[in-house]
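Customer escalation, tier 2.

The customer says the design service returned an amino acid string that "doesn't look like it belongs to this structure." They asked us to rerun it and document both sides in this ticket. The original structure tokens are below, unchanged.
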């Protein structure tokens, strides 16, 4: 099979773009205060957030590119 192929030269122009979006961290800070107040570990909170991530809503209309 390889003997039926030919060498080929080509170039690839990969341009990566990084986008940063401002976020309001106040809900995170409130969640961290509650987590500490109730004695919930950061790992348990992280696990809960991953398990329930589909329930969180994001207003994509407010994003600016």
């Amino acid at each position: 099979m390889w003997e039926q192929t030919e060498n080929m030269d080509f170039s690839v122009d990969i341009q990566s773009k990084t986008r940063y979006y401002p976020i309001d961290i106040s809900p995170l800070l409130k969640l961290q205060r509650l987590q500490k107040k109730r004695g919930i570990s950061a790992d348990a909170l992280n696990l809960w957030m991953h398990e329930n991530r589909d329930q969180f809503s994001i207003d994509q209309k407010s994003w600016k590119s």
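Tier 2 assessment: The sequence is consistent with the input. Residues 29-54 form one domain. The CA atoms of residues 33 and 39 lie 10 Å apart. Sent an explanation to the customer and offered a walkthrough call.
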